[in-house]
Predict the structure.
Amino acid sequence: MFAIISDIHGNFEALNAVVNDIGSQGIDRVFCLGDVVGYGPQPAECIDLVRKMCEVCLCGNHDYALVYGATGFNAVAADAINYHRNILMPQLGGKKRDDAPLKRWTFLKDLLFRYMEEDILFVHGSPRNPINEYITETDVKWGLERKIHEIFSLVERICFIGHTHRPGILNSKMEFLTTTDVNDEYQFPTDHKAVINVGSIGQPRDGDPRACYAIVDNGVVRFRRVPYDVEAVCRKIQETGLLDESLAERLKVGK
């Protein structure tokens, strides 16, 4: 049994609530699919907790952008990355040595792009492009069969992803299932492959503001929703004076 978290985005309140929920389930293996940073007010605290609790952490597009530059990001996301970079980048010189910034920076720089365990693949975005490609329900709606075929050609059996902030399941039968469709529980298929999005901890976008993650136990995926103090995070975003107000407002509605 293990837990999978993703898209924390500097939201320490949400992460801490999920960590407590994971602990209450008796789980000691945790995988993170990336985007520890970006958007939220507490990137350092989130990195420290992920480093402490996660067996594996992958690189998301925001983690990559923080180290190498926010190319192709909209203004709000790019400003947040720059804000986080100023917080996290190690400073040279100074009389007092502090190893924490260097350890956080090295952690981000060394994140894996993909991880495989038995017949399960873990990536942030997609097997074709682990950092940046989105897999969404619209791929089915628009009939993007070639894209879906190419994605599943790179999946042995099951692939877990994040990136879209919207939990759900895409299978090789060209079906997309929401968590409502499966009543928050999904059995690994035996006659086809599946790509499973575990949702977002720090910035859900499916209309439910609660943090979302997944537990995997004997081939069954259970989607968990965890409430947290959204207003506290919104206040911290506003108090930075540098993060866009929209980042606080969207947390309240899960969009």
About this structure: DSSP finds nine helices and twelve strands in the chain. The longest helix spans residues 75-88. The chain has a mean pLDDT of 95.
